[in-house]
Amino acid sequence: MGVLPRRDYLTTGQVAGRRACADDPLPRCGDTEGVANSKPRILNNNRDMVWSLIPLVVACLIIAAIASQCTLSPGGPTQGPIPNFDAAAALQYDASELPFPIRNPVVPEDWTPNSGSRQAIAGDQGGDVSNVGYISGAGRYIKLTQSNATEEVLVPYAVGGTRYASGTQPVEGHDWVLYEQQNSEPVWITDLGDVRLLITGSGTTDEFTTLAEATTSAEPLKP
Fold first, then answer.
1. Burial 110-136 (b: 16+ CB within 10 A, else e)
2. How buried is 160 (Cβ within 10 angstroms: 0-12 exposed, 13-18 middle, 19+ buried)?
3. In b/e form, how buried is each residue of 195-212, taking b as 16+ CB within 10 angstroms?
4. If I label 183, which of 19, 25, 56, 121 is the partner at 20 to 30 A Cα–Cα?
5. Distance CA 207, CA 210 (A)
6. pLDDT by residue (tens digit) across 204-216?
7. Global confidence as pTM
8. How many CB atoms lie within 10 A of CB 93?
């Protein structure tokens, strides 16, 4: 006897279900292999893609704006404009107010006075202090201090701590006592009797000498 081919017979419920799916326009039942997976909304059209790129464009514009404020300096940072300070007027005013002689040194033409101040040191050996700062032609800062305070008080006040004398430097007939310390700005000071002159800053020995000579050779200002 031959083997009959297998036939699948559906129940009455299965037949009804298939008919219902055939009449339904939406593929909610039965085989869904023919239905494509829905795409992310961002890929639906060009407009959505443009909107997705806007935050990136804005971020790029912000970075470009920040970068435009910066400049590349291959040789390192450059010196900005030097503040304008009227040293002559300030020293003349101090000469009229302070009880000791004030001098206005004639510095080289490429030196620029950039700052000044007046202070007072308390105590028996203290006194008034007149300061003027200069920027040398090489861009180094040098400060001249004139005071009636004693050397023992004025030097620690100027450097903010204890400093010991390390030698002397003669300049045009005046001996300047040197207070030099490793990794610190040097201090030169000389005593003219009624006033002490102190020089400090980042200047070279030649620049210190230039300011020392210019100050001691200047006549005291008339009050």
1. ebbbbbbeeeebeeeebbbbbbbbbbb
2. exposed
3. bbbbbbbebeeebbbbbb
4. 121
5. 5
6. 999 999 999 999 9
7. 0.67
8. 17
